[in-house]
Amino acid sequence: MSMIKAHHLAVSYGHGDNAIKVVRDVSFEVAKGETFGLVGESGCGKSTILGALAGRNRQWNGSIEIDGEAIGQKRTRAQLAKQQLVFQDPFGSIHPRHTIGRTLLEPLEIHGKDRRQERIEKVLTDVGLPLNFRYRYPHQLSGGQRQRVAIARALILEPTILLLDEPTSALDVSIQAEILNLLKDLREREKLTYILVSHDLAVVAHLCDRVAIMQNGEFVEIASRQQLLENTVQHSYTRVLMDGSRGYVAGAHDHLRRRPRTSLPA
Amino acid sequence: MAKSGTFSSLHDWLISEDFTSSRQARLHSVYLGWLSLVANPLAFAGFAVVLLLIIVAALAPVIAVHDPFAQDFLTALQAPSATHWFGTDEFGRDVFSRLIYGARTTLYITILVTVIVAPIGFVIGATAGYLGGWVDVVLMRITDIFLSFPSLVLALAFSAALGPGIENAVIAIALTVWPPIARLARAETLTFRHADFVVAAELQGAGTGRILLRHIVPLCAPSIIVRLTLNMSSIILTAAGLGFLGLGAQPPMAEWGAMAASGRQYLLDAWWLTTVPGVAILTVSLAFNLLGDGLRDIMDPRNG
Amino acid sequence: MAETSDTILTVENMSVEFPTLSGVTTAVSDVSFTVGREKIGIIGESGSGKSTTGRAIMRLQPPQAIVKATRMQFEDIDLLTASEEAMRSIRGRRIAMILQDPKYSLNPVMTVGEQISETVILHERTTPQEARNRTLAMLERVNIRDPERVFDLYPHEVSGGMGQRIMISMMLIASPSLIIADEPTSALDVTVRQQVLSILDELVVERNIGLIFISHDLNLVRSFCDRVIIMYAGRIVETIAAADLDSAKHPYTRGLLNALPSLDYPRDRLEVLRRDPAWMET
Which of B259, B264, B258 is nearest to B245 (CA)? Predict the structure, then answer.
């Protein structure tokens, strides 16, 4: 069963003649419990798709279906709670003047949930934070701990879908490993469906079952994890991105150059 | 346990970041603010003067040695002496006692104006900044209209229209003070408008009112409090100016501006009539300025 | 590495300390290394002191910082005793620096072309017209497609990759013998990164100079540099040839390598780094 269905989705910014189409025409389906990746360079529209799915960007055409329910430009609270966004920057995504407990309490108040303290304690445990962290302010936490709080805030409404916008790209390698492991555990335990946006194919291949490679607002290819690992992808742009995640490749840039140079001017 | 021991363990409990309750977390930030206020001598001096002003105003009947309204023409225009510390005015009233009671008037005006202005300025500015579009344009143009008048002239016009009296002076001053607050609130709101944590709240279904009150207020509050504190000195000066021109507090009420105004005629013979309330106005407005500057260092999130 | 005539920079027992309210914080502790005519990578996580090390070499540390060392020798210059005036003549000419965001290294109110021309005039004492031609040639040299147009752009109008290429073109003129690049490609997309790195690579190899490449990206440093210095909590825990990184001995280096998701060696769970307090004592 498909958890997310997007058909002929196009997203734009601005109005009238100044409108810029960031996502042109993409269609995809994500099954329940699947992790779908969106990869591409900055400005390719990967985060914009996520924004449209989350309800952040309302200027879209086409159709979006979440958990069998067609979604309009305006959403009800219950529809908003179905999917939650985790932001890239753990320093900017948590209110600096709210304690962690307050940050976690806020969505419960909005949705009028009961057993609030119990839920906060459960979600803190789920993301591996000590319970007394609820009395702390974000500035007392490290980047990795903040990202755990951001994940906890996304989980507290018991969504079925997590939309992850570069959740580890602002973190150190060792912290990234912890967060990626946490995301894997949560997916299994809570039966979550993920959409992961990243510029790093290695991260995407680690977590995702299928990956859409994006360029200029379109999908150039949808590859399976198997294809990435066995290096049987179709599109040359996918290869460029794969090389990029392996590091620097001497001479790989040659096909990007227009004029070969032989020596440096004196 | 020894008293110093209790204090040091209280200090340890307050500076520990290993919180066990939200009350401790809140007290912790208040205590850190207090420590940095104490560490800033000028701001602390300002705080001390403001505290003194509040105590004096509260205990005016106890502190004042004479009845501030009792006239005695036999002792009119007496120079400062042991009985009349700051001398007497043209009606023989004790200037010291009037000064003490004047503190009440001053405090009454500043607090009332601030209480009126803070919510109005915040609601207008934050709504304009958060909603944007035509709401922003309309609200900000109204603000601009109020800003384009010199504040004393505007206050004068309003108190002339509303009639003299201290309540009307408060309304007139409030009308001149809210626009800069609204502008500040708007500017602050704009910087947080698209912050991830605001977007996160929107995506969880928070309404406009909740976002403004729960998310924007705590962030704007420090700079608005600082601005209001700095504004208090200009409120005092405008109130004194209105009093001086006869549009503020009416006789026989003790008000520093009016006191300075009435002493003007006797400037050469009785210097204390203008000097004493003048120094009081200067001290208090300087104190509010110093306190405001100190608060900016302590509360502004950009500083720490 | 033995100290030979090829050694450009020698740093011995350098420490950088910051006085704070609660005592002195040591950002860099007792690091020693040499840089020859090679690409040397400094890798570490945030707070490991890698950027502080790069800045201390240029003597660009914040004013309150205290830098101590038994020796800091750059070619014929003793960086420990050189006057501020001497340092000014070294910075940008003999030691160049590339930062993550080129916007902070360029003057915002001068066009890109004017700034490069100024360098040309300063170094080659040419006429303004000649300097312009040289500048255009340099811009072309770093693969800028339309040098005439880029010449008249202001720094805020150029993209990140273009900005880094402009910084490199200035180095082509000044001809430094050591380049310190602090996360020069972290803000760039993969394809642009390849271009910038290959230009940098050519510059280092053909001019036969030294490069200190500071980065958090293990894969990048391993594939781009000749040798790698691994820093942890202000200390150098290991210095190793990039090709031998897979056989690194220090548990921290191993931990970092295993924490990295990889297309070539997929694993179900990434290894989580266990930080050993003993690493701080070496």
Answer: B258
| Contact criterion met (CB below 8 Å) for B93 and B71 | yes
Length of chain B: 304
Distance from CA of C80 to the nearest CA of A (A): 33
Domain A2-248: homologous superfamily in CATH: P-loop containing nucleotide triphosphate hydrolases (3.40.50.300)
CB contact under 8 A, A256 and C191: yes
A33 burial via Cβ count (<10 Å: 0-12, 13-18, 19+): middle
CA distance B301 to chain A (A): 9
- In chain C, what residues touch A180 (CB-CB under 8 Å)? 261, 270
Q: Output the CA–CA distances (angstroms, integers) from residue A61 to A82, B270, C261, in the order listed.
A: 21, 81, 36
- The answer to whether residue B148 neighbours chain A at the CB level (below 8 Å) is no
CB distance from B27 to chain A under 8 Å? no
Specify whether the CB–CB gap between A182 and A148 falls below 8 A.
Answer: yes
Which tokens belong to C147?
Answer: 């040098």
pLDDT tens-digit readout, C46-91: 889 999 999 999 988 888 899 999 999 999 899 999 999 999 888 8
CA separation (Å) from B276 to A246, B86, B252, B257, B273? 78, 7, 18, 11, 6
User: What is the reported pLDDT for B4?
Assistant: 58
Domains of chain C: residue spans and CATH: 9-94+178-281 (3.40.50.300), 104-175 (no CATH)
Angstrom CA distances, B52 to B57, B101, B273, stand at: 8, 13, 22
Which residues from chain A sit within 8 angstroms of residue C194, using beta carbons?
243-244, 248-249, 252-253, 256
| CB < 8 Å to B19, chain A | 132, 135-136
pLDDT tens-digit map of A159-217 = 999 999 999 988 898 899 999 999 999 999 999 999 999 988 999 999 999 999 999 99
Residue of A nearest to C224 (CA): A248
Inspect the structure and tell me whether chains B and A have 3 or more CB pairs less than 8 Å apart.
Answer: yes
Q: Please give the domain boundaries of chain B with CATH numbers for all domains.
A: 62-76+84-303 (1.10.3720.10)
Q: Determine whether the interchain pair B204/A84 forms a contact, defined as Cβ–Cβ distance below 8 Å.
A: yes
Can you give the pTM of this predicted structure? 0.85
- pLDDT of A53-80, one tens digit each? 999 888 899 999 999 999 988 889 899 9
CA distance, residue C86 to nearest chain A CA (Å)? 26
Q: Indicate the domain borders of chain A.
A: 2-248
